């Protein structure tokens, strides 16, 4: 069991460095398009404010190469001001005298948000001088940035090794949900996998063999599996180097008694026409699951006891190929099963359709949740003390 903020004693008046994942989408005016990630960290922030800590919050935002005014954390600080009126100050620097001065003036129960960590290239390099600087800001370190927990960066991995530490409520919940779902699943356990990067998804499917009862495979990755079954895939996306591995995973899964269902029809592109097809001919590119497949998948989802879903069932960004993902999102939302959804596109589909409240757990970390589904540990969590 990792130490959580509830286990930290005598923290009032202490300086606490809290690493959040405020990597929120912004429009060109700097307005936050979706504040889910900020909302998700509010319980941890509230707890630490109520404990009268001097709270220093840090996060990354986007992938800046050096300073980038369009990726400032200022809009995030403004959003936090609405939750904590008169308690939040923003420092437009990550390191240096201005940060130190603001921290020295920070009152108990107040919050200082410092600028985007990735404006300093040493963050992603886990550079020891940057780690030392960040660690000097606080007496205690709290990690609530689940979205980057699979990374070894200065502000999560490096700093945790330097200070007394704990995880926040968000990370505590993410770990608990995935642990219970895989160790003690409600049955039938139905896993749904989509997306295009078959190389990234194979370890998930491998780890779920013997744990899930049914696996539904859609999206671009399905074509590598269909080819492994000797089915024509036309010009659809495929990773030829992984066809043999896909075949042995299918064999192993079926040997273990798992029900593996692949697409039986498609929405495809034939030259510049969108067509529906049970069988793809040589000129077709499969870009979404078809209606029959969606119905087949929905039937399994309806009778599930637990659902884990990662990845879109089609080329979701394109209106013509998002119906399959939407149908699956609807089926998952309608199902009475315990549901966990991870990955940007799948979570996006749920939110777009207004099903946010119908899902038991929407994971805040795509990459990190995939590592947990692979049965792996997360480096930034490994370095947090155990109880
Ligand atoms: P991943 O990061 O592996 O979850 O993949 C997500 C991406 O897969 C999205 O950008 C989708 O557009 C893409 N995708 C899903 N289905 C297909 C498909 N049939 N062909 C090409 N790309 C797809």
Instruction: Give, in spatial order, the strands making up the sheet with the most strands.
Output: 3-4-2-1-5-6
Q: Regions with pLDDT < 50 over 5+ consecutive residues?
A: none
Strands, count: 15
CATH topology of the largest domain: Rossmann fold
Topology:
Layout: E1 15-19, H1 36-50, E2 54-58, H2 74-83, E3 88-91, H3 97-105, E4 111-114, H4 128-135, E5 140-143, H5 154-160, E6 165-167, H6 169-183, E7 189-193, H7 198-208, E8 214-217, H8 222-228, H9 243-255, E9 259-261, E10 266-270, E11 273-277, E12 284-289, H10 291-302, E13 306-310, H11 323-334, E14 338-342, H12 344-352, E15 361-362, H13 366-373, H14 379-382
Parallel strand pairs: 1-2, 1-5, 2-4, 3-4, 5-6, 7-8, 7-13, 8-9, 13-14, 14-15
Antiparallel strand pairs: 10-11, 10-12
This protein binds adenosine monophosphate.
Question: What is the compact description of this entry?
Answer:
This protein has 14 helices and 15 strands. With 387 residues, it is an alpha/beta fold. The protein folds into 2 domains: 5-172, Phosphoglycerate kinase, N-terminal domain (Rossmann fold); 185-373, Rossmann fold.
List the main descriptive attributes of the protein structure presented here.
387 residues, alpha/beta, Rossmann fold, six-stranded parallel sheet, 15 strands, 36% helix
Describe this structure in words.
With 387 residues, the chain is of the alpha/beta class. It has 2 domains: 168 residues, Rossmann fold (3-Layer(aba) Sandwich), CATH 3.40.50.1260; 189 residues, 3-Layer(aba) Sandwich (Rossmann fold). The protein is 36% helix and 17% strand. The protein is built from 14 helices and 15 strands. The strands form 3 sheets. A 6-stranded parallel sheet has the order 3-4-2-1-5-6, sandwiched between helices. Strands 9-8-7-13-14-15 form a 6-stranded parallel sheet, with helices on both faces. Strands 11-10-12 form a 3-stranded antiparallel sheet. Strand 5, helix 5 and strand 6 form a beta-alpha-beta unit. Helix 4 crosses helix 5 and helix 10 packs parallel to helix 11. The mean pLDDT is 96. The structure holds adenosine monophosphate. Adenosine monophosphate binds next to strand 12.
